[in-house]
Design a protein that fits this description.
Length: about 325
């Protein structure tokens, strides 16, 4: 009797070919979905940056007027013949120290305290985060009233407490104005850093800190040898955001003092604004803006390098 061998199921040799159109379709859908965002990014980010870079090597007086090519003359002027820009750069350095170092340390310390279980913990978190959701204009208006030398809340309170000798013209004194503005900026932005630090602290396994306590580590040793090392990626993110904020600082200073008195609160970006729109030196202002763009790109590059190194070390 003849034995029939079972036939093999037929396999289409075009199975692979059928997958390629599917992949092409998925890829097309991806780019179609991404196209609006890319278009907006190109129109409102890339194109303005290109325009600024092109204008930085010209003597353009405004956005639409005629201009001629001047090469690197604008950049040479920045570094050799602009004492006002030097003053603004020094002020920006002072501002950056408080915004990057002081604010980061304060935000980390407050986040560690708020991360502990305490009564009214959510209320304290809301208090520190509240300035983030307040309009910058409202913040400037409120603090300007508080800093008023005659009827402001701060000086009035000092006089009521018998400390009238400490009352100052907080925004009019050449030596105090910059630090008064820095205080307002830290108050209004520290809440965001606190939230980021608290998010990072929530990722630290409780078993690690518990094991450290069992081994006899006190709160300081736990903070120094466990919490701070494990918070390095979060700290790096906060520092990058602080550097970006310091380099781009403008609104609070310009709304409160417009760089006065006598240039005491003039920052780099307020100088860029004045050169471009007050004095119509658009080409020169563009060269100043290019320096900031390069600095921000450098900071982003260092952040990516740090993230990649942290990822490899895990």
């Amino acid at each position: 009797m003849a034995v029939q061998t079972p036939s093999r199921p037929s396999v289409s040799i075009r199975a692979g070919a059928g997958g390629r159109p599917a992949r092409r379709g998925a890829r097309s859908q991806f780019w179609i979905a991404l196209a609006p965002a890319l278009l907006l990014y190109g129109v409102f980010t890339l194109w303005p940056i290109i325009e600024v870079v092109l204008a930085s090597v010209t003597d353009a007086r405004d956005l639409t007027g005629e201009s001629s090519f001047v090469g690197v003359d604008n950049f040479m002027r920045m570094f050799t013949d602009d004492p006002d820009l030097l003053n603004a750069t020094v002020n920006t350095g002072i501002y950056a120290f408080f915004r990057i170092v002081v604010q980061t340390v304060l935000a980390f310390g407050i986040a560690v305290l708020l991360n502990k279980k305490m009564a009214l913990g959510n209320v304290y978190r809301a208090i520190f985060f509240a300035p983030i959701v307040i309009s910058p204009v409202a913040i400037v208006f409120t603090w300007s009233f508080m800093f008023d030398p005659t009827s402001g809340t701060i000086n009035t309170t000092l006089r009521d407490l018998g400390l009238g000798s400490l009352a100052q013209d907080w925004l009019g004194d050449f030596d105090l104005a910059l630090y008064s503005v820095i205080l307002v900026d830290i108050w209004s932005s520290i809440g965001f850093s606190i939230v980021i630090f608290m998010a990072g602290l929530s990722t630290i396994p409780a078993e690690v800190t518990e094991a450290a306590r069992v081994d006899g580590a006190n709160a300081w040793h736990t903070l120094r040898h466990i919490t701070i090392p494990l918070m390095r990626p979060t700290t790096a993110l906060v520092l990058v955001l602080a550097v970006n904020g310091a380099l781009r600082a403008f609104d609070t200073v310009y709304l409160m003092t417009k760089g006065g008195p006598g240039g005491a609160t003039e920052l780099y970006m307020t100088r860029v604004f004045d050169e471009g729109f007050a004095y119509n030196h658009f080409g020169y202002a563009s060269s100043m803006a290019v320096v900031v763009i390069v600095a921000l790109v450098g900071v982003a590059y260092l952040q990516n390098r740090f993230d990649s190194q942290v990822g490899k070390g895990r």
